[in-house]
Amino acid sequence: MSGDALRSFLAADLSPQALAQAVQVIERLRREVPQGVRWVPEENLHLTLKFLGGVEPDRISRLVTAASAKLEGLAPFEVALGGLGAFPNARRARVIWLGVCAGGAQLARLARKLDAAAARIGVERERRPYRTHLTLGRLRQPAPVALSGVPCPDGLPFSVEEVVLYESRLSSAGAQYIPLARLPLRTADARETNLAPEM
């Protein structure tokens, strides 16, 4: 990606209650999973819908326009977190994630629409089906993980009411996610898109 391009992605934020549940699960995992895991900081927990890679600033407004058009007529919906898993599997894990026990089909539909919107500005289409998950930690080396003993009750449903376009700024201290735009889900005729203030 060019020096001016913004490393970015589209995501759904968690409610405070869902965020607290995810943090609680991470604390339990810390006690059960061996060393060598980079746990996601609380402020970076989100449900990724489309990773965009590097997007030049002059394409951001086009992306927002295309994504808003794809979201038009989509109503807010409920999601609930539940169930632990690992990619590619628990025997040779690289990523530990928290799943979704409600709202997965709606999130997948949302991801497909955003994938199509991103393609309008030249972002490559996804080749694999969307797999709804909340990344909790990444292992430095593939290793087996025992997840069955970690209690993970289903969370209370929360409403997904908007999609957030984030910039991911990388540094030696880790990634910082900066909101660039908020795209509301609404069935009414209002087509307002809230651009986040520049930081």
Describe this structure in words.
- The protein is α+β, with helices and mostly antiparallel strands and 199 residues long.
- It has one domain: Cyclic phosphodiesterase (Cyclic Phosphodiesterase, Chain: A), CATH 3.90.1140.10.
- Helix content is 24%, strand content 38%.
- It is built from three helices and ten strands, in the order βαββαββαβββββ.
- It has helices at 16-32, 57-71, 104-119; strands spanning 6-12, 37-39, 47-55, 77-87, 93-102, 134-143, 158-160, 162-171, 174-184, 194-195.
- Strands 3-1-8-9-10 form a five-stranded antiparallel sheet, with helices on one face. The chain has a five-stranded antiparallel sheet with strand order 2-6-5-4-7, covered by helices on one side.
- A hairpin with a 2-residue loop joins strand 8 and strand 9.
- It is globular and about 45 Å long.
- The protein starts with 5 loop residues before the first strand and ends with a strand.
- The model has no long low-confidence stretch (mean pLDDT 91).
